[in-house]
Amino acid sequence: MAEDNFAGFNDHINNLKSTDEQKALLQELMKTLQNMPGVPDEQKESMLKNALEGNEDAMQAMAGSAGQNTGLPMEEAGNLNAELAILLSLITVLALILGFIVFKLYNNRTRRQRIKEEKQIRKELKKQN
Q: Which superkingdom is the protein from (predicted)?
């Protein structure tokens, strides 16, 4: 049933008196809607009808309700972004701490080598005097 309706929409899109870009966008919308899991066929059909009629307010409302079908409750979906931000900030802090430790180790090593070379130069100078 839904496939027949989508074929009808495709014919209707091709018969529109609009630009090729608009037709391409509508065909892309149709393909996207066909591949959307969890959205009922009736809702997909009404979204396509609204797109063909140019009813932007209805399209935005439908897209908003279709975007809520993520399988997660709304609170968990919102917390996911916060958890990702916290995770990324913790990884950044750990990287900074690790970078600081590596920097200190490198400075300590180069300082020891410099002291060792200066000591060897002093010994050589003593032997020459």
A: Eukaryota
